[in-house]
Amino acid sequence: IRPYKCELCEKAFTQRCSLESHMRKIHGVHQQYAYRQRRSKIFVCEDCGYTSSRPDEYFLHVRQRHPGSPALRRYYRRQAHENSTFAST
């Protein structure tokens, strides 16, 4: 699954940094980011390649389409851990 696509040549990458490196080396395009600037995150379904920039949309997709997904189990474990940590403070 390669969600990061070059707009100039349609080559696709699994990681944003690989796309940025490709853009710089092949097309001479330099990305300008402020120091420690957060860029938008993309959520990619490990089962079918569905992508979303919003975590709520992504997890809704996984819950509806892939209820037995390992990604969903990790999400539930993380939520349970965060809730137990928050409750104990």
TrEMBL record:
Location of this chain's protein in the cell: Nucleus
SUPFAM superfamilies the record matches: beta-beta-alpha zinc fingers (SSF57667)
Principal subcellular localization: nucleus
Signal sequence region: none
Annotated ranges, domain C2H2-type: 4-32, 43-71
Pfam families cross-referenced by the UniProt entry: zf-C2H2
Entry GO CC: nucleus
Biological process according to GO: regulation of DNA-templated transcription
GO terms for MF: zinc ion binding
Record keywords: Metal-binding, Nucleus, Repeat, Zinc, Zinc-finger
Keyword field contains Nucleus: yes
Top-level taxon in the UniProt lineage: Eukaryota
PANTHER family reported in the protein's UniProt record: OVO LIKE ZINC FINGER 3, ZINC FINGER PROTEIN WITH KRAB AND SCAN DOMAINS
Protein name stated in the entry: Zgc:171929
Organism: Oryzias latipes
